[in-house]
Every structure is written in structure tokens, then in C-alpha cells.
Amino acid sequence: MTAPLTVVIFGASGDLTARKLIPALYRLDVLGLLPDETKIVGVSRREYTDEVFRETIQPMVKQSSGISWLQGPWTQFAKRISYVSADAEKPEGIQKLNAWLQNRENNQGGRRLYYLSVGPELYPGIVTRLGEAGMNKEDGGYRRLIIEKPFGRDRRSARDLNNILHQHFTEDQIYRIDHYLGKDTVQNIMVFRFANTLFEPLWNHKYIDHVQITVSEKVVIGKRGAFYDTTGVLRDMFQSHILQVMAMLAMEYPTRLTAERIRNEKVKVLESIRIPTMEDAKKSMVLGQYTGYRKEPGVGANSKTPTYAAVKLMIENWRWQGIPFYLRSGKGLNARYSEVVIQFQRPPHLMFPLQKGHSLESNRITLVLQPNDSIRLNFQTKVPSVDSYRLEPQDLSFVYGQAYQGQQLPEAYERLLLDAIQGEASLFMRSDEIERAWEIMDPIIAASELADAPDPNEYAINSQGPECANGLFSEGQSWQPIVPN
Ligand code: BG6
Predict the structure, then answer these.
(1) From the CB of 411, is ligand 1 less than 6 Å away?
(2) Which residues are catalytic, by number?
(3) Beta strand 324-330 with 308-314: parallel, antiparallel or unpaired?
(4) Which end of the chain is more exposed for a tag (fewer CB within 10 A), N or C?
(5) What is the DSSP annotation of 186-214?
């Protein structure tokens, strides 16, 4: 018989629990993927009974679950949820939780998944208390620790945090979340590249001109001003999500679908990214801030925090030598839209006449990560006519929603929670990966925060960001437009 599983959520009264974690566990339950004896216990300082906690989160879970919400299955699922009011940074708080867990496990041991859905300043305290109380010991079942981002704010703090974690947990007990890796379309990058023979031979400096990665958000900062103003887009989106997508795009074939093989290949890409000097960094980025950001609650009146950035990075290895990767992300833009563009080189010679003032658009593969997940291959065609060779680019498209009608794309957290329950760590970040990602971003962030750094370029809400972001490209190239949806 397998030991009973308890998912312990620290920070249970926070938004993430009700908006993402509980809805994900609920859906796993509906799909029959949660082990039968699974219990979920929310932990935070607020005084709730089990019943009040369930009632408090229910409206948000319902909203987040959308069409998959059904009262009957929820009532069944909600019986799994309990609540322990405790300050997990204090020994007595952790002892209270431990006593609850031991009681629930009938003192026979059990599997425990600890989820730190708390502010990053609480990670060291809670992890240390868990260690001191012996709650890290694999006693009758595994002990796993899931950690949310942000993981540090630079390389040094990430390393310090890793050291604290490693005092109490081994690396294979630690699951560091980057929820972009949980997105089906990000995992599909690997399938697209390595389950097809067509693309991989072209996936290198001989045929590709450059790569663009865009993560555009329509939302503005809203209530997150206090956090965001000390973080900025470079820490919030680049160090984590965008570098992870870049590593998936650029890595070599991992040969096996195992956590270590995949992460080894991703680390090799990160290790090959040229770390810019401060001077290079200044020239390889464009920063922006949306109009009105400084008036958001919690934001400084003279804040220079960028809400938009476009950055150019180079990978120094055989496959990618000389091929720029252009990365951009921003808030308050005209759409929530994430895509990867593989821009191929022009044909070496063109015998067809071009219309006056037109240049040839060379081939492009666009992987739309969200929403309207799709893949487009753009290529030249002959416009039908009896007397000319007029060229026009057209798309060959694959749209997830059409190809897999009636099949809902899983939410990132469903996949990640299930993987952590099952001990599958491929989609979580290893300590070396995270530290190297910071090492790449540190000089870029430092250059953006120099006392004499210019103000970020102002851009209008609902725009495509500052126009000068096209200045990163060589002549004749530019960002693909962010498509409103
Ligand atoms: C989070 C960032 O990690 O990702 C947020 O902290 C951002 O600022 C969010 O809005 C974007 O995630 P998604 O899945 O909505 O693209």
C-alpha cells in the first residue's frame, strides 16, 4: 500500500492558492489523477476553520476553473481540504502542523509535498523550521518542497537561498517552479523540434537569421505595485520565463526524456550565452515604462523601474554562432500574447523579380505560445496569373483548438503539481540553472539600475511598447507586430 499523500500549502490565504493551486488540484481530481487518499492542508496565520477556509476560497476557485467547475465534484473534492492556522516561521507553528500531519497519517508515515506559496522573504525561515523539526526526513514516504518564484533577486541571493535549502533538503527533493515550463505549448517546443525530421536540420546559424521571443501582457501592475517597483520586468520575466523558453529553443537533443538529461542540455545553453559587460548591456537593451505607471499604488513618484524591456543576447556555440536572440516583454501592451519567431535567412539568390519598393520576406516559423495557441509557417507563393511571377507570402497554420477540438489545454499548474506528486522534475529548475540565469541577467539589471541611467522610454498603454525597441535589430529587420486577440 502506498503511503497517504498530503499536499501542504504554506501561504494558503494568498491569491495563488485560490486562483491556481486549488483549481489545479481540483481538476486533477476530476480527471482521476489524484491518488485516492490525497489530502490538502492550507497553512497560514489567519484563523479559519476547515469549513470557513473552503467557503472563502470557493468563489475564486469557481471563477478560475471556468467551464470545468461543477458543484457536485467540487463538494466531493472539498472534503479533502483542511486548514491549520499557524505561523510557519515559528517553531511552535511548525510543531502544530507536524502534530496535525502525524495525526492524519496515524503516525504511520506518509508522503508530503510542501508548497511554499509565500513571499520569498519567508522561504528561509519556513525551510529552516521544517528542517529543525525533522520534517524533511523521508519517513515512510517522500518529502518534497515546491518553491515559487521569485527565486532570489540576483545571483548572490539565489545562491544563498540554494545553500539554505541544501542544508535541509537534497536537490532531488526540491522543485523550483517556473510555470512557463508547465505550459503545454512550451513543452511542445521540444516535440516540434525533436519529433520531426523537417525542422531540426535547419535549426542553426546556417539557415536562421535571428530568433524573437515575445511575452506581451495587457495587464498593468494593479495591486502589485510595492512588489513590482523593486523588481521590474527584467527580474520578473526575463531571468525566469524568457530564458527558460530560450533554453528550450536552443538546446541540443537531450537523448532521453529524463529530468537530468533535459536540464543538462538547458544549462549548456545558459552557459553558452555571452554575459554582456555593462557597456554592452547598455547597447543591447531598450527599456520602457507605460504612461501612468508612477501613479500606480505602491510605486515611487520618480520610479525608473522598467515595465517593458527588449534585450539582445548571443549564444556562443557551434549551432548558434552569430545568431541574435531578441527577447521582449512588457505590461500594459495591446494584447496578452506570447510567441517565438524563427526568422530564416533570405535565399542565397533570387531569380524572381520583386515589385518596386518590396523586399522579399524570408521564411518564418511562428510558435504562438498563448493564447490561440498555434504554429505558422510563412513562405512565398506565386500569385495566380498567366503573365507574371508575382510573389506573396502565405501561412501554413496549425491551430491547437481546431486540431484538438473539445480537448482543453491543461493549466500549467495542473501539470506541475502532478509531476511533483509523481517525482518528475524535468519541468522544474535545478540550482545551477537558476544561478546561471541570474549570472546572465545581473549585468543587464545592473546597467538598467545605474544611478545615471536614463529614464525608461515612456509608452502608451495598449501600444506595442516603445518604438525605439526596433533599434536593437540590424537594418531591414524589426519586431513582428504583437497581434491583438
Ligand atoms: C509571473 C509574473 O511569473 O508571470 C507576472 O510574476 C506575470 O508578472 C505572469 O504577469 C505571467 O504569466 P502568464 O501565465 O499569465 O503569462
Answers:
(1) no
(2) 241
(3) antiparallel
(4) N
(5) HHHHHHHHHS-SSSGGGSSTTTEEEEEEE
